[in-house]
Design goal:
five-stranded antiparallel β-sheet, Glucose Permease (Domain IIA), Nuclear Transport Factor 2, Chain: A, 3 domains, disordered C terminus, globular
Length: 427
């Protein structure tokens, strides 16, 4: 009886299944097949004291490939210029074969080493590759005030960075001493190229034009390229070169005049009245000291009370002296030729000195003279040849229009005080 009932129930179930149509086929879930990795990528910053050789060996490349990679790089880049803190990326196979190596040289270029033929890993190709960038022309209006008393501070408050301030100071280095002449109310309008990489700021290009007001004087600069030679330089609105024989100062930023040229000064250490035949600039130790004019090194060494000193000879019977240096610039030795604005040393307090400063002296015809007076009365530079003046004037007028239009579109870009304070606290 019980068996008959089971048969009836089973038959009913089969009948219902037949009515419901075909049953779905169960889906078989297969686990993903995990293939072993063929390569490993290392992305990091160059550690301190690392060389290209040690960097590659530390990444477990085969020894013979490290030697070949360094040799390949040497053909396009000096491996000794590898710097700590710069980013690099290395891709290698698990058995120690180099696939690709990239090292950021600077904001514009990177070193790349690759294996073009994987069947022949011993053949490596090295090249220096420019980064792909987007370059635009923009403008900024910066002002000196109580909150931004320096050129660097004014440019940063307008939303830009120190390299732009340095570039502007370079353009007007023969007309303005940015260390001593700035005062509240001075202003700067700058039209310049700005490059970005992957949407982030990368670098500044050329300053195309600038208008600055310093101490009530309005000065203008226009970048113009000579058509026949392709040489670019800066000129005033009349087409006269802004390049002067002397820079206004042997220091770029931050110093202050602590003692002027005088035939009778109470010496701060000897406590006697004697002549001070130069100008003292108080500045942080290590600040860059540059040649105010092109010339030849007469001597570079210790000079007793003057400490470490560089003595340069220039055209026209001029000589300059840079005293109390903490260090000398690269290649600064007797007989070496130096260019205007070339680094000759670093501010220090060697010799007889109460604090870090530069004692800068100028001699003409064998006699020491007041450098501030000579630097301030330099004649305008050489003018653009008459045959090119019409082209320059057209370029100048277009530049003036572009500065005004760009500033009108972008509007003021001063950082709010709260934002600037936060920015300064992080620096």
């Amino acid at each position: 009886m019980r068996q008959a009932r089971l048969i009836v129930l089973l038959g009913g179930a089969l009948a219902l299944g037949a009515c419901a149509g075909p049953q779905p086929v169960p889906r078989v879930v297969r686990a993903d097949v995990r293939l072993p990795l063929e390569t490993e990528t290392i992305a990091a910053d160059v550690p301190r004291a690392a060389t290209l050789d040690s960097l590659l060996r530390g990444s477990r490349l085969r020894d013979e490939l490290v030697d070949r990679a360094v040799a390949a790089a040497r053909a396009v880049f000096d491996p000794r210029r590898i710097r700590a803190g710069r980013p690099y990326r290395l891709v290698r196979s698990l058995d120690g074969i180099l696939r690709e190596f990239e090292y950021q040289i600077d904001a514009d270029r990177f070193l790349r080493i690759i294996t073009p033929d994987r069947a022949r890993p011993e053949l490596l190709d090295a090249s220096v590759v420019p980064y792909e960038k987007d370059t635009t022309v923009t403008a900024v209006d910066a002002r000196i005030d109580a909150r931004s008393p320096s050129l660097i501070g004014a440019v940063e408050r307008a939303g830009e960075t120190i390299p732009l301030a340095l570039a502007l100071a370079e353009v007007f280095s023969g007309q303005v001493d940015f260390n001593t002449e700035l005062q509240p109310g001075d202003s700067f309008k700058i039209l310049f190229e700005k490059s970005t990489r992957d949407g982030q700021f990368s670098s500044y290009g050329s300053i195309l034009g600038a208008s600055i007001t310093v101490g009530g004087r309005e000065l203008r600069a226009f970048r113009w390229t000579e058509p026949t030679t392709g040489h670019a330089a800066y000129y005033d609105e009349q087409g006269r070169s802004l390049k002067r024989f002397f820079l206004k100062s042997p220091l770029k930023f931050e110093p202050r005049i602590t003692s002027r040229f005088s035939l009778r000064r109470l010496h701060p250490i000897d406590n006697v009245v004697k002549a001070h035949l130069g100008v003292d600039y108080g500045a942080p130790a290590g600040s860059s000291v540059v040649a105010v004019a092109a010339g030849t090194v007469v001597s570079a060494g210790f000079s007793g009370a003057g400490g470490n000193m560089v003595h340069l000879k220039h055209a026209g019977g001029f000589e300059t002296y840079y005293l109390h240096l903490s260090a000398f610039g690269p290649g600064i030795r007797a007989g070496a030729h130096v260019a205007q604005a070339q680094l000759v040393g670093r501010v220090g307090m060697t010799g007889s000195a109460t604090g870090p400063h530069l004692d800068y002296r100028l001699k003409s015809g064998g006699r020491f003279i007041n450098p501030l007076a000579v630097h301030s009365r330099q004649a305008p530079g050489e003018p653009i040849p008459a045959v090119h003046l019409a082209g320059f004037r057209s370029s100048r007028d277009a530049m003036l229009t572009r500065i005004t239009a760009t500033l009108a579109v972008e509007g003021p870009r001063q950082k709010p005080d709260a934002v600037r304070a936060e920015h300064d606290s992080v620096r």
